[in-house]
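Here is one chain, start to finish.
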Amino acid sequence: MQRNQTTPRDTALELLASLRAHDYWTERMQLLAAEDGRERFLAHVARAVPYYQRLFGSGQPPSSDDFPLTGRAERVLGRAEFRAEPPEGAPPLLPRTTSGTTGTPLTVLLDQPTFFHINDAIYGEYADIHRVRDALRPGEVGITLVTNKPHQLRTEVPVISLHGASFRRLVVGRSAEEDAAAVSELRAAPPPMLYGKPTYLLDLAEVEERLDGTPRIRPLTLITAGENLFPDDRRRLEEWFGCAVLDSYASTEGGLVASECPHRCGLHLRGDRVELEVLGDDGRLAREGTGELVLTNKLNWGMPFVHYRTGDCGTLREAACACGYSGPSLVEFPGREARWFRTPREERFDPRRLEPLFTALPVRGFQVVQRGDARFLVRFVAAGPAAEIDLPLRESLRRQLGEVELELEAVPRLVGPGGKCRRFAVEAP
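Its structure:
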């Protein structure tokens, strides 16, 4: 028996909320598509948000260059300062809190268009990006989200943007009984789209591997977001599920920010709603280059994000793709992974050089943390006897890193349920 299932009443209420929000979303997208849409958004922010009211006063509407950088710390401490004054009769803003796995959680207030984007429109966009719209059927599941968060509800609701197909959420790792039921369900009726963090989808693959049997789960495509997709994890997912994996950049603050197309030449920016810039080492913002990604979300007028420091690192390039897209793309997206280690041999050692050492061994996952100039913690999930991995791994690591102190630890999993794994990290001294 599955626990925490949504009731028909819950489903009806969610669908009704989406129907109400759809009209607001359509109106907002039309406004942003207008020639002066961007300027009207910035004027709204300057006029309606207390933080910017004090900054700009009642003078001429500012340009985007006038908006200062803000980050999570300012918004956590002064949430009310970044909430727009609602028009009379406007629907209430809806809270959604970030996971907090890489910092203090932030509660983001969603207006109706943003609520619809995150809970509905984003799935229609995925269907178009992944070219599976023709496989969607009214009344059937169109996209399944896999999570290992034990307190999540098992949900299934119709999605307007999927033309009557539904969104379903399944939880793995809560109990052997539920895992077996989820695998059986997915094998019998595989969804066109299977969605989740790479860690969650790998958990599902391991559950199915333990259960054995045939046929395997065979969706048409896999969508990853919320966590780094590493090349070896992409290979494992594609080999197990027998379909392509396409990555995306999504967040509570920005919704679907950028997505990978089947040509895999970068994550294309969803520029009708969001803008990304790069904060360089010189403190300047640029449209191209490498550095911290700075977000402007033009969709959410209830709690606007303008020049918001995401904490994620990436490389932006203007380019044309064979899919027909032309514009900025994230051609490298390490996110919050450490970009460099410092070793006795090299001042700037690229941690990605260590990945082949682990993929050559029976290891399901790993993490390398620098704890000092010559001290490293290495945690790994063994797919075979850990004792047989320890010595060859130490020798390989020392050949790369030099004479360093290595603490190796075999663990059953790298992060707990709902966690977000960083493969490479540097601890502050």
